[in-house]
């Protein structure tokens, strides 16, 4: 398994990639799809999203800048805003500071899966099955980070994926970041808040009043569904 913060397309060639922006973009996308959203179209710029709405009034616009809802948008980036009565059957165009960009950065991979604690087990099981079927030998984990910097919450979630994948492939090669993420996850698996309380983005969201999002995004495996980013769209596999 490899594990990148800064990725180039060639690094991911021939691999399946798991992209993690635990707080909160990938958790929010997965929850929206799990609540019945038809698809999510991640875009990098606010103007792109607004253009989508101009062309098709039925799309919902979601995302954040500075952690908060963008002017003219329907939804912020809190997973708890993406209730089934709001998102069911809808196409959501999303732009966030780091998460949507990380998905695009992973473009060189053979297949791309948004990942989060909330559906990690199901995603890992699916990837293992598909990798074995299609003779894929590398699984990459791409962490979105925050403002181009390493963030602890993504690394903890990456460590959980390493833990799940390692169980099936005990002899697989792990690069140093994968080993570090695994060890960190193991140390804090029962209480991730214990380490995250020192971290930047976790505290930032707390200050903005999103304490329930922190609890939500750190809960494991209550979503039994896998999402894939394919042809510029996130959908259920
Ligand atoms: C991002 O993509 O930058 C994050 O999801 C920001 C946030 O937590 O709202």
TrEMBL record:
Entry keywords, A to Z: Hydrolase, Magnesium
Cofactor requirements of the protein: Mg(2+)
Keyword Transmembrane assigned: no
One Pfam family of this chain: 2-ph_phosp
Gene3D superfamilies: ComB-like
SUPFAM superfamilies on file: ComB-like
InterPro entries: ComB-like, ComB-like_sf
The protein's Enzyme Commission number: 3.1.3.71
Catalytic reaction equation(s): (2R)-O-phospho-3-sulfolactate + H2O = (2R)-3-sulfolactate + phosphate
Family: Belongs to the ComB family.
NCBIfam families, per the entry: PRK00886.1-3 (NF002054)
HAMAP family attached to this UniProt entry: ComB
Protein name, per record: Probable 2-phosphosulfolactate phosphatase
Gene designation per UniProt: comB
